Task: structure prediction
Amino acid sequence: MKNPPATEAPADAEARRSFEPVICYPTGSLPPYDPSVFAVARAGMELIETVTVQPRDAETFHVPQGHFLRVVCPGGSQVGDLNLWNADDLDERFYTGKTRALYGTHLSTGDKLLSNMPYLRPLATITHDTLDWYGWDEFGGSVHDVIGTRCDPYTNRLLTGGDYDQCCHSNLIRALADETGMNLAEAEPYVHDVLNVFMCSGFTLDTKQYFIKASPVRAGDYLELFAEIDLLGGLSACPGGDCSETHSSDVAVCSPLTVEIYQPPAGSLGDWGPPARSAYGGGHGA
Ligand SMILES: [Zn+2]
Result:
């Protein structure tokens, strides 16, 4: 959001604005997404665990490497805030910033969820998205964003002066603390910016501010991810419900979400192998 300019535009302002953009991180050097790699596994995979996430709360779950995870909307319209960690090392976690820089503001089938530096490797690959029909709407909105961070009590306090304890940030902290035995203060630094599953959002066309609108999710919709390494996940059922109006309060109608873990048949992943952490040596020019 920018104020009216205090600086007079130069005579060649339009020429300076007309420089062609270039993609900052072209992904053409990466192997293209090949759904056939996962086709046999997906066709024969077996549901081995179902976790229910109650409204205004969060749950953790484990997804073994080479298994699939589905975030499902079983009933009422509801968005979920997803965190992912390396199950063996919580310091390695989902990095929305670089994922966004490579794959865009909203994710769908074929996109990879990258981990933070110095690891920087795919934690998961999206293998199916029943909302992929949505595309982009007239407001510039789309589904499953990596731009909204997560609702949290600090921003709520900043903007309203009030306190609310069931924001996604707090829900994920409680769930991670329960999972690990850490206390809340110990768990908090591990909670990170999320994939906003089923969230419909974007940046306004005029001021480029983050907006939310009613999720198009229907009962039975799901986002499916393939675990590239052993994952610990956390999912919060956002207090914003379908995020059509407000969040960070008990005002919105909220519904449960479910997490389903699927095991593929043995040998069904062919040549797939887990990604190694970044091979950069860490010299940093010193
Ligand atoms: Zn939330």
About this structure: Residues 50-61+75-107+129-217+236-254 form one domain. Residues 168-180 form the longest helix (13 residues). The helical segments are 13-17, 36-44, 96-103, 153-160, 168-180, 184-187. The two ends are 38 Å apart (CA to CA).
